[in-house]
Design brief:
EC 2.7.7.56
Length: about 240
């Protein structure tokens, strides 16, 4: 039995509220159970120096957690004077995951920055950030297309992510914190809405896993991402 009482293949309740900030070109608040992330997308008429003059666009991301997003207060990274390694790793993951669903030629020579701020954490914050980040990105691109700044839709496929793992010897979908903290195997699966893989992060936290178990987790991830893609579509319709 899972601590939440969910079935092995059951997602947490997912909701995506759009237009939650006044100034950002795209924004949403995504809730996956008790994990809540504010995602905003900002359009800038510039690109990093390494692609300047190439005609290609760029999508990047920043990630952070509020001090009381977790059970105990975390010190703000700004107060420490630098970002932690986990933060840097996650925001790079979000950026490259979102870029995988973007036609950068169609986007044109501009940059969209997706900011993901975790308001409340209960496991799966990077997955929620990627899923909500794509919604914010979609809304920002919609504005570019509405004004005629972009002619051809640069978003070729939705991008979403979900966690899966081996908990109490069973493969489970969408781990919350009690499961994540005790899982023998933990994985994050980033996929397109059409079912193509972008990135898989899997590690044995307390026990090794077999190829058959990995296939079981892959099947669960496909189910979860298809549900998330449907939620993204509904939120941006």
């Amino acid at each position: 039995m899972r601590p939440s009482g969910r079935d092995l293949s059951e997602m947490r309740a997912v909701s995506i509220e759009t237009g939650v900030t006044k100034h950002a070109e795209g924004s949403c608040l995504i809730r996956m159970g008790d994990t809540h992330v504010l995602c905003t997308a900002t359009i800038e008429d510039r690109v990093p120096p390494f692609i300047k003059g190439s005609g290609l666009g760029w999508v990047t991301a920043e990630y952070g957690m509020l001090p009381r997003a977790t059970n105990t207060r975390m010190r703000r990274e700004a107060a420490a004077g630098k970002q932690g390694g986990r933060t840097v790793e996650i925001q790079r993951l979000i950026g490259r995951a979102l870029r995988a669903g973007v036609d950068r030629v169609a986007l044109g020579e501009r940059q969209i920055t997706v900011d993901c701020d975790v308001i409340q954490a209960d496991g799966g914050t990077r997955c929620a950030s990627i899923t909500g980040g794509w919604v914010a990105l979609r809304l920002a691109v919609n504005k570019l297309m509405k004004t005629g700044d972009v002619i051809s839709d640069p978003l070729v496929d939705p991008v979403a992510a979900v966690s899966c793992g081996i908990y109490a010897g069973q493969p489970v979908l969408d781990l919350d914190y009690p499961e994540d903290s005790e899982a023998g195997v933990d994985g994050n699966f980033i996929m397109t809405g059409s079912g193509k893989l972008i990135e898989v992060q899997m590690s044995a936290e307390g026990s090794v896993f077999s190829r058959a178990q990995m296939d079981q987790l892959m099947d669960l991830a496909e189910k979860g991402v298809s549900e998330l893609a449907a939620a993204q579509k509904a939120a941006t319709a």
